[in-house]
């Protein structure tokens, strides 16, 4: 058992409200509780000007089918689900991640296939670019991240994951409106975009872990 009074531990008499209206209508995957730190392991993607131009074209076209589609403000490729850590687990969790990821080298992947996703409870829909090359290296990384998650009895990543960079989102399950004709038009925009084959060939240089408001980086060799 952990000692009482750790920073970030909950006051048993303190109630926390969670108003989805403050988050663009998004709904939490699990209830907010003081002392619970939402944690996520991912590969950060720094968008270049050309990528943002492509994103603007895709979002503009998607809005002709679903007007509420909004562009993502930051971009990444997930290596874990969002899991919950207690405050006193963060440092040992990060240490274990650092040890397991230390041997990995930088690598490329290609993310050029437009795909529509929904989250597990169908409260949000996403448009993403799925990885078409580099899958093996990503699975190796996930395998090591999963081992760390298992050490802390936390949920591991999805079986047969569809690795992707999310581009845009909307509230609710609107996949039916975005798939089919809309999806084909979005893929045409990607395929016809100038230098898209170079633009969507991504070199990953670091892994990052976000836990609450804390960020930890693990450079690839």
TrEMBL record:
GO terms for molecular function: 3'-5'-RNA exonuclease activity; lyase activity. It holds the Pfam family HVSL. It catalyses: a 3'-end uridylyl-uridine-RNA = a 3'-end 2',3'-cyclophospho-uridine-RNA + uridine; a 3'-end uridylyl-adenosine-RNA = a 3'-end 2',3'-cyclophospho-uridine-RNA + adenosine. One of its GO terms (cellular component) is nucleus. Residues 1-25 are annotated as: Disordered. InterPro entries: Cyclic_Pdiesterase, Usb1. GO terms for biological process: U6 snRNA 3'-end processing. Signal peptide: none annotated. 3'-5' RNA exonuclease that trims the 3' end of oligo(U) and oligo(A) tracts of the pre-U6 small nuclear RNA (snRNA) molecule, leading to the formation of a mature U6 snRNA 3' end-terminated with a 2',3'-cyclic phosphate. Participates in the U6 snRNA 3' end processing that prevents U6 snRNA degradation. In addition also removes uridines from the 3' end of U6atac snRNA and possibly the vault RNA VTRNA1-1. This is U6 snRNA phosphodiesterase 1. The lineage of its organism: Eukaryota, Metazoa, Chordata, Craniata, Vertebrata.
